[in-house]
Known about the structure:
The chain contains 2 helices and 5 strands.
Amino acid sequence: MLTADVLRPADIAEAVAGRDAIISALGPSGLGWTLLRPPQLTGKPLTGRYRTRQGVNPRRGLRVSRADLAHLALAVADGPDTYLTVIFLAD
């Protein structure tokens, strides 16, 4: 039986509104920002094998390890080619 683990449309709308608010606040800030959007985070070790897409979640992208998220964060930290972008990632 599904109960507390089911996302309601209101939950999804709230998450999207929060994301949009963050991007709206960052946009005119003058900062060179990159927003990383992971799905469910796991405690698995670094693999270095993850998929990324700009603006949309990779197909069937359900999980990614914290170590792989950190790996991507370091890889794009000084890259002006990723400034002002939202990067989704997943295993």
